[in-house]
Amino acid sequence: MAPKTRSVAKANHRNYVRKSDEFVRSAQQALDRGDWDAAVSNAIHAALCAADALTVFYSGTRSTGESHQEILRLLAGLRIERKDLDRNLAHLRALLQLKTTAEYEDRL
Predict the structure, then answer these.
(1) How far is 83 from 28, CA to CA, in rounded Å?
(2) In the CATH scheme, what architecture does the domain 5-104 have?
(3) What does the pLDDT look like over 49-103, one tens digit per residue?
(4) Among 43, 37, 26, which residue's Cα sits nearest to residue 107?
(5) pTM to 2 decimal places
(6) Most exposed: 38, 41, 94, 107, by fewest CB within 10 Å?
(7) Domain ranges of the chain
(8) Where are the alpha helices (DSSP H) in 4-35?
C-alpha cells in the first residue's frame, strides 16, 4: 500500500528544515537539563521534520499517514544517493523504536 501523502510546494522544504532545527535546539536544552525523555522526543521530532524536508524537496509530497512508518516508505522511494539514504533510514528507524519507550512507557 502506498503511503498517504499530500502535495507541498518544493520551496516549503525550508520550513521543515527550520522546524527540525528548532526541535534539535529543544532536544539539546532538554539533554543539558537531564530531561532524557524530552531530549529523545525532541530528537525524534527533529528527525521526522528533516524527513519531511527531504520528501518535500525531492518529491513535492509530505507524509500524512497516521503511522510514522509511512514516512520510512516515502523516504525509501526517493531517488537520491542510495548509500546515504539507507544510512539515514536506519537512523530514523532506530529513533522511531525509541519513541514508544520515551513517550509512552512508565519508565524514565
Answers:
(1) 28
(2) Up-down Bundle (1.20)
(3) 999 999 999 999 999 988 888 999 999 999 999 999 999 999 999 999 888 777 7
(4) 37
(5) 0.90
(6) 107
(7) 5-104
(8) 13-33
